[in-house]
Amino acid sequence: MNQPLRNIMTSEVFTVNESQSIREAAAIMSEHNIGALPVVNNSGQMTGFITDRDITLRSTAQGETAETPVSKVMTAQQIVQGTPDMDISQAAQLMAQQQIRRLPVVENGQIVGMVALGDLATEQEFDDEAEEALSSISTPSAPQE
User: Fold this and answer.
1) Which member of 23, 33, 96, 100 lies 3.0 to 4.6 Å from 66 by CB, making a disulfide possible if both were Cys?
2) Where is there biased composition of kind Polar residues (predicted)?
């Protein structure tokens, strides 16, 4: 049964601007109890993604200050994205292949939603896809060089 992502995505997406500090990004994450934020430019176009793990490993562990701009520690290359009309099964397969737990949903260059692995798991008809995605995501990947 084909269902578009728009049926399960979270539409209220909190973002951070690439020029904001990692302190501000961490505060947004803390306030909304989330672990990742899409990074947008002044036009609202997604330019990257930052996670609580990025802040820890790419800034704190490297001796950066809390005022370090998000752009310095975000993931900016090869941001995997979905579209609102993408089939949920396709999204789960993409998340599994790319070993990601969160999929930003973009339309016309603007972030319009977010789908997390947990969103897939709450839809009973997609239990198999969620299980497969989690299994693939949990498989250790090769270290980056």
Assistant:
1) 23
2) 135-145
> Cα–Cα distances in Å, from 136 out to 97, 98, 101?
7, 9, 10
User: CATH: 3.40.50.300, 3.20.80.10, 3.10.580.10, 3.40.50.150. Which one for 5-138?
Assistant: 3.10.580.10
CA-to-CA distance for 141 and 84, rounded, in angstroms? 28
- Which residue(s) pair with 10 in the sheet? 114
The answer to whether 46 and 79 are in contact (CB under 8 A) is yes
Neighbours of 49 (CB within 10 A): 20
List, for residues 93-137, the tens digit of each pLDDT value.
899 899 888 999 999 989 999 999 888 776 555 555 545 554 554
The number of residues in the chain equals: 145
